[in-house]
Specification:
With 515 residues, the protein is of the alpha/beta class. 38% of the residues lie in helices and 15% in strands. A 10-stranded mixed beta sheet has the order 1-3-7-4-9-10-13-18-17-16, sandwiched between helices. The chain has a two-stranded antiparallel sheet with strand order 2-8. The radius of gyration is 28 Å and the shape is globular. GO terms for molecular function: serine-type carboxypeptidase activity.
Amino acid sequence: MFSFRKIWASVSVLVALFGLTVAEAVEQQKSWLVDSLPGIPDDYTQRMYSGNLGKDEQLNGDLFFWMFESANASFANRTIIWLNGGPGCSSEDGSLMEVGPLRMGGNGTFHLNQGRWDELGNILFVDQPKGTGFSYSLDDDYMSDNHEMAEEFSIFFEKFLAEFPERANDTWYISGESYAGQYIPYVASKLIEKDLVRLGGLAIGNGWIQPISHYNTYLNYLVEKGKLDLYTEQGQYLHHSWADCMLALEQLQSGSGDVEKCENFLYDIMFMLSDKPGNTCMNMYDISLESSYPLCGMDWPAELENLTPYLSKPEVLQALHVNTTYVKEWKECSNDVSNNYAREGIDSSANLIKDLASKIPIMLFYGENDFLCNYLSGEDLLKSLEWNGEVGFGNASWSSWYTGDSTDEPAGSYIQARNLTFARIAKASHMVPYDHPIEMKTLAAAFFDNDIQRLPTHPSEHLPDPGHARHSKWLYLSLLPVGLTVSGLFGLYVCRKFQLFGLKEASYEALPGSP
């Protein structure tokens, strides 16, 4: 016999069990709660968690995470993974210099980041692969393969979801930059393969996706930016150096050749394109800046000078729950990880992007001042890439976009077709969120809302708040019952006023026996 009582009893038992599980998880999460951090501003009040989940036999080490909870209740169930590149560079670059809520100032203290992504969702920064940043590898067992990297990330991720079960039903996005153009497609494919979470999309900035496209476009980029004339002795020399590199890459595809030819090609560019060869050089991450030779931008951004000693302070290591048995200090990039990934540096993740675009939205965005992973390399990649049944962007056209402020200059341009968006950000560097935080946040908000077309295409247009469309929909739905009630009462009043349908206007009459 059908019984609501039995069903409710069963549901109550499940709720009680689930509540116990959540309570246990919340108690466990306290061990990763960052309740104080030297130098952060008093007006930052969101919860954050960080640390190592515990060394794992499968990982032969452990990965470090830092999660900032969303400052916008509308996006409490959206979580964004951020990965920096290298290979072997820490995602704390992203947390404290790019998309995190806190930015380090010149005096070693923090201020709130105007381009903070925690207003777009929860943000999870992960130092990976092992040996990167605050992550560690036992027995110096470093990654050398993207497939192995993705498998180990998925093992970490499963442990993370076990410790933070409330995040399991979130919509997840993966974003990052540079060599994360290799990491992200492999990680996304693995998470989809294991069906761990619901992925909403991927956003890759100045990604190292198809190396041959980078080397192939370096000279064209320099010519387009007015840095090089190919019809000079200097230009001819660099053209020959480029030809040696391209031949080496072709040979590498068949198992021979030497990537050193391409490294020499880069060195030639950095040395020759200088007013003082051997003393200064172009910053390879932002061609509007000059750097000292042979660093050529490796000591950039300037905040690294303060960030590195800050993250190595004992009180900061303790506050972030770093496992100091294995990690004594923070290094932005690991040579051990980078050297083990050397061969992977020539591989392409383009075919994975092609496959993923049939499942989820993807955005490739490029700061236009970046030389190393320049926007022409992205265009070169996509013009010959087939995805979702067609090659390239077909008949799609470029659109300029604005941030909605008072400036008459466009923030950049974009083109979109068949689930893939290609965007350029004017005057931005390799680390777009670092030097163009508002532009990057504007673009990211539109992408995460799956509404790139809402970007203003004229300087006079005003940009809606992040999630504007979602707010509007739920606002209208919440007001619908109110509207119906008001309409019904007004209709009843009219019917009684004019005695329609036999209804008369109500008047007070004393009940029998009333005084």
